[in-house]
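Appendix C: a fully annotated inverse folding record. The material below is reproduced so that readers can follow the format used throughout the book. The structure is listed first as tokens, followed by the designed sequence.
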């Protein structure tokens, strides 16, 4: 039996290098593997917990979809859809909510860290928390469990969410008998630490990202912003502690990486290192960027691909939902 793999990206910002290296690239590799069935989606309703602007929601949603496709997702191999096109996810989300202990969600990191920040700032514990944020892990559990997912490739910050999905599956199974497959997460270890412009993890929340499909001039400008020390060009430099080198390594050939390592040890000017980083990055991105732009200019094409994916996904979801509803005594 093929294993079911599923992951989603929420449209809360433009796709950046960290998304690509940490999530999209490994997910695409799994899609090419014949041992897996893969389902990848745009988690637009998860995005709604943050994005409350019509135009922004549309643009970001298409942006995530176009990025997957431009980077090589083949919608004939992976089921590729938009979360909001699958009403069964939301039905299941409610059912799971009725099995989710509130205390479990109180302990979910994303909510807990807002509550703790509020406490520190002397605000009311739930200030600024909408119920979408609070019940976020339940919707994510529905995403995962509806498709009998065995493996969920995610970043480290999402491990707890997959564990919550597992817990909810177990509560349900204990009550009604084996129904849901218990999911596991897969983490991309080496890439979990892709540095951003300031050296911290590249993340929308730190505002230190390099958007993947940036125009060459903008890309060069961003790379020039990477923080460096004031050591002169001829001074030997440690490649392992350089953000520029860490990024270079992701895009250059192994030979180029080795050569660059030697040049660091001999001494290289930061300006030169940045220029060469730009060159490898830009030549990698050139083709997908052109495809991304073409797709963004034809949203009807994106809609058609996503709708087709949704139809395939619902073929699985509808009968499973009937089974679930029968079990809980609601199907007539
Ligand atoms: N919460 C995930 C993130 O922020 C996105 C997501 C939504 C997801 N539903 C999912 C990931 C289901 C994996 C499986 O990155």
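Designed amino acids, in order:
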């Amino acid at each position: 039996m093929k294993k079911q793999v599923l992951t989603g990206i929420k449209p809360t910002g433009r796709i950046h290098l960290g998304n690509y290296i940490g999530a999209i690239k490994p997910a695409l590799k799994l899609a090419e593997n014949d041992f897996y069935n893969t389902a990848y989606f745009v988690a637009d309703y998860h995005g709604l917990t943050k994005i409350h602007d019509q135009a922004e929601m549309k643009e970001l949603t298409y942006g995530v979809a176009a990025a997957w496709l431009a980077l090589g997702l083949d919608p004939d191999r992976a089921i590729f859809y938009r979360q909001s096109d699958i009403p069964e996810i939301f039905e299941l989300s409610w059912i799971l909510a009725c099995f989710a202990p509130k205390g479990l969600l109180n302990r979910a990191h994303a909510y807990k860290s807002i509550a703790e920040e509020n406490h520190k700032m002397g605000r009311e514990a739930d200030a600024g928390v909408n119920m979408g944020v609070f019940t976020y892990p339940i919707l994510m559990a529905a995403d995962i469990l509806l498709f009998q997912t065995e493996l969920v490739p995610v970043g480290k910050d999402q491990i707890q969410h997959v564990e919550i999905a597992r817990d909810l599956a177990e509560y349900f199974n204990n009550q009604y008998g084996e129904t849901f497959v218990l999911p596991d997460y897969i983490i991309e270890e080496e890439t979990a630490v892709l540095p951003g412009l300031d050296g911290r993890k590249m993340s929308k929340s730190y505002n230190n990202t390099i958007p993947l499909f940036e125009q060459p001039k903008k890309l060069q400008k961003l790379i020039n912003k990477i923080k460096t020390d004031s050591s002169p060009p001829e001074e030997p430099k440690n490649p392992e502690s350089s953000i520029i080198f860490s990024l270079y390594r992701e895009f250059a050939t192994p030979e180029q990486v080795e050569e660059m390592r030697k040049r660091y040890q001999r001494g290289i000017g930061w300006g030169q290192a940045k220029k060469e980083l730009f060159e490898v990055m830009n030549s990698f991105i050139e083709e997908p960027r052109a495809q991304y732009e073409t797709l963004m200019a034809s949203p009807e094409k994106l809609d058609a691909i996503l709708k087709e994916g949704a139809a395939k996904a619902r073929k699985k979801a509808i009968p499973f939902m009937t089974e679930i509803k029968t079990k809980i005594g609601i199907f007539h």
